[in-house]
Specification:
Elements: E1 2-8, E2 18-19, H1 31-37, H2 44-52, H3 61-72, E3 82-85, H4 89-98, E4 105-111, E5 117-120, H5 130-142, E6 157-162, E7 165-172, E8 175-177
Antiparallel strand pairs: 1-4, 2-7, 3-6, 4-7, 5-6, 7-8
Helix pairs in contact: 3-5
Protein name: DUF2441 domain-containing protein
Length: 184
């Protein structure tokens, strides 16, 4: 088992909580297709992208990445059925700071190294030509930094942890919070 660090943007997690998959209540007629794609349900991230964000600037990107995963990297965990974490506390704190998530808490999450998957989140971009988008999706699922033929930001390695997963202790400034009330 390896310890990773999850930034809880929703501020709903607690130490010891098991995070699992959920299902979406869909309009009549869409359930069968949804159940074909995600028979066990989706993660919070999957719920957000498959059910609630119709106005997202690029709502199809997650589905495109999912289909590339299914076609060429089926052994990798789905982004839509996983939770996300960072390889180190410093990377989790950097993400939190850069996204302006002042109130978000950071928790340890242990995962089987063979089940978790680490990929460059900066490859998640489908705004270019279709062939480049396909190349980025394939590089993401291969765990690569990305093609050198295009100008990309330096890699930012995210960890996909298949669900269910148990939330560990909350950490702050390199110290562990042992009680949820914030006392040390």
């Amino acid at each position: 088992m390896t310890t990773f660090f999850h930034v809880d943007r929703s501020n709903q997690l607690l130490p010891g909580q098991t995070v699992g998959l959920t299902t979406i209540q869909l309009p009549v007629g869409r359930e069968e297709h949804y159940e074909m794609l995600f028979p066990s349900g989706v993660s919070r991230h999957g719920f957000y992208y498959t059910g609630l964000r119709a106005n997202e600037p690029d709502p199809g990107m997650e589905l495109l990445w999912e289909f590339v995963r299914r076609a060429a990297f089926a052994e990798r965990p789905s982004r839509l059925t996983s939770m996300f974490a960072w390889p180190s506390l410093a990377e989790a704190e950097s993400f939190k700071r850069e996204r302006g998530l002042r109130d978000a808490r950071i928790f340890e999450v242990e995962a089987d190294t063979n089940a978790a998957f680490i990929a460059n989140m900066h490859l998640l971009n489908s705004s270019g030509p279709l062939l480049l988008t396909s190349e980025l999706a394939h590089a993401y699922w291969a765990g690569e930094a990305g093609p050198t033929t295009v100008n990309l930001r330096p890699p930012r390695w995210e960890v996909l942890i298949p669900l269910p997963a148990v939330i560990g202790v909350e950490v702050r400034n390199n110290s562990t919070v042992t009680q949820n009330d914030g006392s040390l």
